[in-house]
Amino acid sequence: MRVAQLTRPHHFEFIDQPSSEPGPGQVRVRVRAVGVCGSDLHYFSEGSIGDIQCAYPMVLGHEPAGEVDKTGPGVTGWSAGDRAIFEPALYCYHCEYCLTGRHNICANIRFLSMPGEPGFLRDYVVLPAANLMALPPGLSFDAGTIVEPLAVALHSMEFAAVRLGETAVVFGAGPIGLLTIAALRLCGASRIWSVEPVAARRELALTMGATCALHPSEGQAKAILRETGWRGVDVAFDCAAKGETVNQCLGATRNGGRVILTGIPSSETVSFEFHVMRRKELAVFNVRRSNHESHAALEMLTREPSRFQPLVTHTRSLPRVQEAFEMVEGYREGVGKMVIQL
User: Fold this and answer.
1) What is the DSSP string of 249-282?
2) At residue 219, does pLDDT exceed 80?
3) Which of 32, 42, 102, 123 is deepest in the core (most CB within 10 A)?
């Protein structure tokens, strides 16, 4: 099978590798589409993300969809050719956190596309049958790649607890930020500001449901405060994790409001204006991927595909993966979500 390996920053190489046979309770899947995530891009551009360093060669990609190729002993309910979405996290199911329903912080979690855990930029992957969700006939493989990042956005909504009519700001209009905007609209937020430096992404933010899209250099903090009567928004999301976006969230949020940190910073440490948070008694929440939101994300996508599918703006075949990552890195051609097709 074909495998796209990141062998150093900015450089993919292809190898041929035999595919594994599925064991008991496992399914071998044929990958057909993989979305490019911001964390994939960090590995490609910087060789790390936060305190996690690349271990080359790496196989990236954790937003996959495809079809069943072969089932292992004991697997029922799946047959060759069935279309599915694949959950990229492997849980132990017996640690303290799994037993209390917090699988996303499993003490023994393995997440495919991390160092040492090959992701989905390869033709075949063997997974536990429990990691598959049926892809409805009306959704393409490309659309199926939206489920994993949408589940992350929905997980952030658990912390945000948005009430009807509340206001929000989302810093960053990459795929997670755009899906957060769409989720906020569905939650009944009355006014949603998007703050994003790339013009094409500001336009996408408006398409996905933002009320107003601002450039970060346009005095956005004062604009947001002015439009809220100098009160601030009820909830702020940092989906960019770049520069001062964390502190901009703190500044834009009202007293007693909520701040949700979804993006992953490139650096190991982040400057934090503690006293702004303290004086406002803000509730600050950190998002760790998703936790049991994938089925809700798939149902939402199936019910309202037109709300989410504008996110996918570009596709490239697997042999053009280098070009695809370079395009996303350079924000070229108005790219929103890039999908690699296999």
Assistant:
1) HHHHEEEEEEEEE-S--SSSS----HHHHHHHT-
2) no
3) 32
